[in-house]
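Notebook, p. 212. Picked up where the previous page left off. The plan for this session was modest: take the two constructs that came back from the sequencing core last week, fold each one, and keep the raw output in the notebook itself so nobody has to go hunting through shared drives later. Recording the first one now, exactly as returned: residue sequence, then the structure token string.
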Amino acid sequence: MSKITFLGAGSTVFAKNVLGDVMLVDSLQGFELALFDIDPVRLNDSYQMLTHLKENLKSTCKIVAYSDRKEALRGAKYVVNAIQVGGYDPCTIIDFEVPKKYGLRQTIGDTVGIGGIFRSLRTIPVMMDFARDIREVCPNALFLNYTNPMAVLTNAMITHGGVNTVGLCHSVQVCVPHLFRHLGMDDTGVQYKIAGINHMAWLLEITKDGVDLYPEIKRRAAIKQQEKHHDMVRFEIMLKFGYYVTESSEHNAEYHPYFIKSRYPELIERYQIPLDEYPRRCVAQIEGWKRMRDDLVNNKSLGHKRSEEYASYIFDAIETDVPFKIAGNVMNTDLITNLPREACVEVPCLVDRNGVQPIHVGKLPPQLAALNRTNINTQLLTLEAAVTGKKEHIYHAAMLDPHTAAELSIDEIVALCDDLIEAHGDWLPKFK
């Protein structure tokens, strides 16, 4: 029996999306869906929910919950990763509250920036444990990483974990539909090309019947910028740098040095930037789970409609050899020629029986490559810190982060990193 292993299966809603999708696919019937989570209560919640769902969907998949990670992985053909190390309390709280003491504010803090750096540092050791188990008990498995910081963790699994990995994010699938809905445009029959790095990939081309749609997009966006709306940062980036970026404005506000500035507090209102957005979402999700838990876990009539998540489509394409195109995070094997080879990039990929095959993109427009490199610098130095255990590389990563460097002096950045290391305690490995 073939096996799909889900690490972090206590993410019950996400497990329903991914594994519920699997149960709807003909080629994946009969697979074992192996669940693992370090929280036995949440693991059991997901097991109960998926068991009811399996019965309602009349799926022949087998649901198995494991208390031993290595046994959950043993013999797996596919592995889905959706863990969060440290959770909201204490680690997300630390990521946001300690920098605030230095006047450094964030919105999401899960990609780069000071929050993204420390999220990487506490997650990479756990991922390397996964990699050791995978090399031992399922060395040919395809690892689907959904955990942020996407680029750093995917890079770590491939480069240092020796695991066949693709990183998957939602931002590319929804980029064009959300943009067109916001601008009152119809995306039927639209063709487009997106590439860059995770959370900062670029809508490079967009046409319909051979006609370039960018002039009309920019015309409408310029009008929109005269009023307050939720996507002001991305529209500003597009109007100044020429291209629309995939990830949301609340994310991109902290990827650049232009928007969250203590010297110019009026920018927060001007660009509608939601400071501390991720902690608010965490609290809302925790409260929401309390309200929805019983209905989701114990609902014996639970149904499911296939989601936009790539996982089941990837599995199906490999099993059936019917090609499917995704946006994947992979190593830059000269796929984007003006970004570093050691970077993880987000590019179109074709999936079939041969697995995930990235597509060559070539050069990005120079200003877009330059913006990507500012974030790649921090990603690579964060990875260097994790791999070498050298504290100096944590400082380097933070000093080169665009938002952090724009707000703090070198001495403040070093002191902030030291405070964050101390506050995290045993959630981090020891750095020398």
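Okay, moving on. Second construct, recorded in the same format:
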Amino acid sequence: MAIATINPTTGEMLKTFEQITDAEVLVKLDLANRAFALYRQTSFSERSQWLQQAATILAQEKEDFAKLMTLEMGKPLKAAITEVEKCAAVCRYYAENAADFLADVTVQTDASHSFVSHQPLGIILAVMPWNFPFWQVFRFAAPALMAGNVGLLKHASNVPQCALAIEDIIRRAGFPQHVFQTLLISAAQVAPLMADERVKAATLTGSEKAGISLAVAASKEIKKTVLELGGSDPFIVLASADLNTAAATATTARMLNNGQSCIAAKRFILAEEIADEFEQMLLTKFQALKIGDPLEPDTDIGPLATPSIVQELEQQVKTAVQSGGKVLIGGHALTERPGNFFQPTIIIDIPVDAPIAKEEFFGPVALLFRVPDIDAAIALANNTPFGLGASAWTTNISEQKRLIAEIEAGAVFINSMVKSDPRLPFGGTKRSGYGRELSIQGLHEFINLKTVWIK
């Protein structure tokens, strides 16, 4: 079975790769297991040096890696360059901080000496998505490698060149051979991997369906997983908000990565007093967005990653209208040009109890809702099976406290858009997944917290 790079801007097939066989997977597993036995003995100083070199390679070759992302999944080149820079930053962050994060922690007990030791688990499988093809991998790889684990990457099938490039970066950075390997495999080959005793844990970023599949396979073997799944993030704007800044940020937050981000703002919940004004401001900004070739520096919106995403988005918009919604702008694929382009879209008047109002729209579609007060805003924000992030806009301190305390999400950003930061834990609640990436909490997900007692 072939794994292909298909340019979403043109529909052109750029390159194909052969999926590796089950026998080849077993060989790579054996190589990873042998590598771990040696790699776990390396020092933090050595790992830090290698990871710093990975950051240097990323920084020096960012334009090449960015272009590769754009050709494989369609993100605007300027956004792709920013993504590579962020990968370099997360490498530097863990290179500089992991030794402190993983130092023994002394605990006073009636022992002569007792402490908590942080030790690596072994082979960690990463099942990663196409939407941030470098960032999603490095935010796993940087802490996992610094902790002394080794990694196997099963990347999305539409970004094979990105997957192979990441493996090459880690090799060129000086890490020992086979410490990080890319597996060009199908989704069907993941469950047998989880059943192999040499794989100790797994992390997945992707859809609910993919997360459930991995979690089931891991649970049968009693293996830990970290899941970062979908989101239908609310963007709440209350009466005291700075509307100009909120509207500009809302546009960026919705259109990030051509709208294909789990933490993109998707449901815009507006206080009735400012709803008309905000709606018009958002409409004006959507009308000004430039759709086009993502390799061009002035392009705001590039293509969606695959034709199937376009089809699903069109069906969701159709369902929203059938449920009572009204399209203010957009609502359709751009069929007059090649590629997977979809118009920036705003939909209003969807009944809050309609099933479609709770779904995730993975593309440049904004759903606008009106509420009478903060109570209704919080209730609507929580009226979804997801709980990844939330952005809320108000200058009222008491309202800020309520929003922080009562919104069901892994992150609440006040007067700012939701984003990930290496210094802060990242992850969700409810059907957005469990576990955390980034910060010290993410580093601790794939270690053995070993209690040591000496008498």
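Notes on construct two before I forget. DSSP finds 14 helices and 20 strands in the chain.
Flagging for discussion at group meeting.
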